[in-house]
Amino acid sequence: MSTHIASKKILLAPAPRKVAEIFSNDDLARLKAIGELTIHESAPFPDDRFKEVASDLQMILGQIDLPESRLRRTGALKAIFNVEGNFLPNIDYDYCFAHKIRVLNISPVFAEPVAEAALGMAIDLARGISVSDRNFRRGHEEYGLSANRRAFSLFRQDIGFIGFGDLAKAILPLLRPFACRIRAYDPWLSAELLQTFECEAASLDDVLRHSRVIFVVAGATTQNQGFLGPKQFSLMQPDSALVLLSRAAVVDFDAMLDFAARGAIRVATDVYPQEPLPATHPARQNENTLLCAHQAGALETALKRIGKMVVSDAELIARGLPPVLCKPAQPETVLSFRSRPVDHT
Amino acid sequence: MSTHIASKKILLAPAPRKVAEIFSNDDLARLKAIGELTIHESAPFPDDRFKEVASDLQMILGQIDLPESRLRRTGALKAIFNVEGNFLPNIDYDYCFAHKIRVLNISPVFAEPVAEAALGMAIDLARGISVSDRNFRRGHEEYGLSANRRAFSLFRQDIGFIGFGDLAKAILPLLRPFACRIRAYDPWLSAELLQTFECEAASLDDVLRHSRVIFVVAGATTQNQGFLGPKQFSLMQPDSALVLLSRAAVVDFDAMLDFAARGAIRVATDVYPQEPLPATHPARQNENTLLCAHQAGALETALKRIGKMVVSDAELIARGLPPVLCKPAQPETVLSFRSRPVDHT
Amino acid sequence: MSTHIASKKILLAPAPRKVAEIFSNDDLARLKAIGELTIHESAPFPDDRFKEVASDLQMILGQIDLPESRLRRTGALKAIFNVEGNFLPNIDYDYCFAHKIRVLNISPVFAEPVAEAALGMAIDLARGISVSDRNFRRGHEEYGLSANRRAFSLFRQDIGFIGFGDLAKAILPLLRPFACRIRAYDPWLSAELLQTFECEAASLDDVLRHSRVIFVVAGATTQNQGFLGPKQFSLMQPDSALVLLSRAAVVDFDAMLDFAARGAIRVATDVYPQEPLPATHPARQNENTLLCAHQAGALETALKRIGKMVVSDAELIARGLPPVLCKPAQPETVLSFRSRPVDHT
Amino acid sequence: MSTHIASKKILLAPAPRKVAEIFSNDDLARLKAIGELTIHESAPFPDDRFKEVASDLQMILGQIDLPESRLRRTGALKAIFNVEGNFLPNIDYDYCFAHKIRVLNISPVFAEPVAEAALGMAIDLARGISVSDRNFRRGHEEYGLSANRRAFSLFRQDIGFIGFGDLAKAILPLLRPFACRIRAYDPWLSAELLQTFECEAASLDDVLRHSRVIFVVAGATTQNQGFLGPKQFSLMQPDSALVLLSRAAVVDFDAMLDFAARGAIRVATDVYPQEPLPATHPARQNENTLLCAHQAGALETALKRIGKMVVSDAELIARGLPPVLCKPAQPETVLSFRSRPVDHT
User: Fold this and answer.
1) Cβ contact B143–A295 (<8 Å)
2) CATH number of the domain at D111-291, please?
3) Which of A147, C164, C326, D268 is spaced 20 to 30 Å from C194 by Cα?
4) Does C43 reach chain A within 8 Å, measured CB to CB?
5) B320: which chain D residues are within 8 Å (Cβ-Cβ)?
6) Which CATH topology does A9-106+300-336 take?
């Protein structure tokens, strides 16, 4: 069945991402089959261009500004796709909800690669893998049981999640074979929801106190800036491990590194308050810290799945059906998010 | 029901391991409940001592020499447990098979921790985790997509096993959530057996050619010394990853490192032809190699499981039942093994 | 933290269900802690009562009529929960979407028990379990291989889903250990969504042609009344099995039974065009049909989970958060559903 | 590599099974590639024929008598395969163990189909599936909640195993998605072994007392004839379910049916003290019993897997390697088995 509606148009303005980065040729062809495609790769998107195309727009793919003044010019708009992975304050969300315009983002594409990296980082901290490698390069490695004095296994451990969104849900199946007891803290969710994932709802303090490995996967919101600080780190078990994956803004970063430097805890982080990290930042010489370079999600294969996810949901929307893969904005929470926009891919 | 047979004795001579290293107090108490326990921690075990205890011995736990001359002195011997994890040429196996004496080893305790480390090492090679950490410490890390130019994900990859014993079987469930296609080469097994594990039997060359990550988990035998050499490494895909976990003797170690140094492949290894590795060994500065210090198996918790596994099977044997946890020597293959004995735990 | 908002009220009008049927005492107490509770068990809900309570209502739990005229009287309404399990034409959905009033139903509570029954019915058809039992009672059973002339196993079979909503998603994990190849037809979903469940998107004809067991789990909509008829059944493999779980309206029921009576296919059904089934209905003597009495979902334990699911989401909504367990009405599809209302529980 | 050893012969004497029943053409060709094949389908196997072929026999496939007098005539014998699925008293096992002759049986082929049937029977008892079907045929079915007054779900139930061999291990993965708590009683196993399957070791009484569904999967031995009798059934929870799959000899069959007839428990059985069951046996009219006709294992596809399993292990044995799929006789227990021989397939 043809899903092309002759008079309907699609605006693809993916900056700071590039079209070729997120769309395969096949997926771009599928997109063109849905509607007439206008591509605009630079930012910002000028007002006069918007006025030209607005009235026929069926879908907008990108992060362009969409205040009420612009949205009012649209009449056929069904969906706006953020192709970065965040809900940003660039859109008049209330207008969209009142007019049944879907606002979607593609963050689910990152869940799988981030989960894989998270597991690798957790095993590294637990088993001392990169520490041994570093010792070899310095010429003072120890072997066997001596190498393992501080090592522990993830099998049957107490594991904690701080935040329980897409990232947590993607890490969970990777942890299943380790038969862990899993506690989770997420103030936006119910204990009943967590039970469906065979996890226990717990207070933040209980997650901190009882877990040997803690995954910090909470998105940044207006309410949770720096909510993990010295008080929280001091509740953690001696030599337990913290894996920070979501946003640096949710932790007191200096305090976290300080607890690691003192050997109280071990830390792995993929995110930083400032990127690049200053050349003289003490994190660089912290022996109890594993440093990854915001690389957990941004695999080429994941970026290409952005296009596939968008076009797949766009086809459904064009047929008058709900999207099923992208993350829909929720009226109750969308204004709470405070992720930094992506500078560049 | 009492499992104590008054006249039967147990010899516990675990050198090079120590009793306290492998037995918890509880497990030692369980052992004493089976039979009168003679403990001898130093090595070797002297002939005159053996003559004294031989006739009443029901079980021997340890790696002492047991040539036919000694075995002939036993009359009630039901089982010999190697508590290192290898079948060594210290025993007259034919005598044991002909006299229904079980010869067992505790290698299964290591499968779980080695599998965990194996997965951590594989993710590290695939995702460039310790490489990024090293770059941070040198001050020239790159971020995001730039950090990931050589990265790949394990999800839905082609994975290969060389050798398919306990280690492979323990790695498999950890890989399941990654939905990989798995080929295995093991000349001791049938394609039908591999199918029961949802793996494909493949030739060695096909495993090398088609896998993005290869786990080398073959034990050392009389037939396979150095069977992975330049010819084999040259079949591997560009930038694919080799994780060596079982024995250094099965690879041409220098050739393997050379392929890594040239960037043809990536290597992670937990074992070395010589331990400690010489201080000037070029492996120490190889940028495409992850070095672990024979630490994948020897966790304290794993060592304590040796005692539990031994006592648990010893209880069954004392009751006239077959052991169910330790690995039994197979008449067809036991003489083929050529693992180096453990120097110390 | 208290979630009670003093001026906000909750209307619980669950007819045809009873409060005690769906709420445990504990869950009712949790509901009362959210807001002042008005309970009305009989139907319909009179206009004058609605006028009295409307302005302060924060949530409505039940299936009462909610046309625009009533909804306009509400000012604080945040959510309407259908506690039957269907979206019915009792609500002005457009008004709700435009006013950010969540419309939810509790159908997910039935997915688990229906999936269990579905698996039991499928194994019964494949392995001839109830057929053998019936033969025993008639005194002409056959044994072993003779009993199994028409039997087949689910292991590694081609399985099909017609419809891929909550029921299909609950059946899937139960089928996983059988290592089946699974095709699914659902015109509301994308191939990419099905891939995330390791299922293949297929046309209706291909599902019918290639499956040995087919689960019919499509909800009744305005578009799909009787869409499975003689033409479709004739595409099925000889002696393959059809398990009808969702709604009788989606099949040509007489044709389905006729194909079974002739031995072309085997059928199991939990739903009927008319309940009770007429006393002389030929289904009752159909040898290739397994008859269940609309019992797949309505377990007492499932009914009690309705209350728990409702109160759990109601607590989140009262705190200004999105619901996470109930099924939210989607603007694109909600008007398409055509399930018969529940007569009685 | 050729595995044919010119002077070595294979005797295939599968009575009461037929060659064509258990071997596909391909598998028979593989067998012939191992050694010169002598086929003898009738029973018994005459002494003079044995004398003719004995000295060159490398493998014997079948259940022929092999007392010491015959075995002494063999000189190259490496393996004896029972193709029924039981270890019978037809062999001088001690002679075999002393001479490193492998004695193997193919019982593992039945584990998978029996497990499937077991799950189907358990769901039937729990959910009342065949009871409803029977009521429909009698014209007095009830619907929905009324049909479910005695129904329960397997999800999160307490489940028990009596016996924990291949059948139990094959049922376990099918139960995993139901998140049950599983207790097992098997006097031949250790608690530690059961833990590796995430099951709890329990006494027989505790399994009976705490389980809502009990799978009886213990093989018949010299020690356990009728060990489940009135005393044991009286420990079971009201209206709990017993699924008998292994051997009728382990239960007091009349007592079991009596407890079911009185409504104390529900029973499903695939095995009978006498087959066929007498025409007037009261089991045939027992309303709380589900009767299957020794059909859980004997699927055509399972029988064909016998040949594949045998030839696959025979190839390894011919190459001097241990078998990996068939079940090897254990010296400690092989003389304890007391299964009735198969009359016919």
Assistant:
1) yes
2) 3.40.50.720
3) C326
4) no
5) 332
6) Rossmann fold (3.40.50)
